[in-house]
What we know:
The complex is a heterodimer of chains A (about 110) and B (about 120).
Chain A: E1 4-7, E2 10-13, E3 19-25, E4 33-38, E5 45-49, E6 53-54, E7 62-67, E8 70-75, E9 85-90, E10 97-98, E11 102-106
Parallel strand pairs in A: 2-11
Antiparallel strand pairs in A: 1-3, 3-8, 4-5, 4-9, 5-6, 7-8, 9-10, 9-11
Chain B: E1 3-6, E2 10-12, E3 18-25, E4 33-39, E5 46-50, E6 59-60, E7 68-73, E8 78-83, E9 92-99, E10 112-116
Parallel strand pairs in B: 2-10
Antiparallel strand pairs in B: 1-3, 3-8, 4-5, 4-9, 5-6, 7-8, 9-10
Amino acid sequence: EIVMTQSPATLSVSPGERVTLSCRASQSVSSNLAWYQQKPGQAPRLLIYDASTRATGIPARVSGSGSGTEFTLTISSLQSDDFAVYFCHQYSNWPQSFGQGTRLEIK
Amino acid sequence: QVRLVQSGAAVKEPGSSVKVSCRASGVTFGTFGFSWVRQAPGQGLEWLGGTAPIFETPRYAQKAQGRLTITTDESTNTAYMELSRLTSADTAVYFCARDRGTIPLDPWGQGTLVIVSS
């Protein structure tokens, strides 16, 4: 099973700032990497797939990059709606697997 | 618009089984797969298993192998997951999600809380 490791576990930032979240795979997942946002009491929402393709309705200030084993999610000009937990997910190999999440909190 | 609606919360005794349903609307069933994911209280996401058109049978995470059964009913556009021999460690919110392979888990069902308690 591929192990996904996210860093940091928690990130404290101010609205308007730019933030970068990291995700590392224990072996190559090519570009088969997705990012999800989850708010309390809600199901996760797909943000990015194929490492860098935005899902329908996701604004351009949200971007993803990387391939192989190293990936990043960048959110520029943070808005109040962005403070949530973010998970990376590899779907290259089955069983699929998730990172443990990064919590984005307001400083 | 694609929508997945899951069955309601359940309270189960240790050792019993639970079956959760996930009904799809706004989409042609059978052209995509499903994944089942759970989230224990305050924890992250755990992929349990799923189906895909390229696989003849469902695939399961090793941790769930032997206890989890995933099925689909095309006549009712519904997917099911049944987890047996429940323990308190299975207390979690269980989610279904459409899995198109090249475009992963989207959308998700609203989640089903399963509490295992005597």
